[in-house]
Amino acid sequence: GRYFMLLIFSVIYLETGLMKLIYEPSWLTDGEVLAYHLVHPFHGNTVVGAWMSGQPWLMAPQAWLTMFFELSFPLFVLFRKTNPYILALGCGFHLVLLALMDVGSFGYMSLAAYPVLLHPDIAHSWWRRIEDLRVPGLNRVVSL
Fold first, then answer.
1. Is residue 101 a contact partner of residue 43, using CB atoms and an 8 Å limit?
2. Would you say 37 and 44 are in contact if contact means Cβ atoms under 8 Å apart?
């Protein structure tokens, strides 16, 4: 299941990154196209997104970061050392996307699926750390 999800997410991000690169090259220049998307009637028009679209100094870096994330995700998610970092970047990407645009449940679905994409060794290590933090006896059933 994890490999199937890795394939699905890699294809989604790579395809959207390549489509932006081919059909909307201003994602790599001034980010003007991002400003347009933030006020688009079908998926833009949030208050924060509308304000941000008028800030050209924010548009270019956000557009570059979006392109970097989408085009590098398929590679970085596969390697143990880079896996948690690209997923953390993806969480930030989707939280910002949820704040700035109305893209339906895509952002929530992506965030919910990210734990499946975490490298198993890292997931087990984090789980062990969480278990070590548990208060002894907290989950114990007390019988009288």
1. yes
2. yes
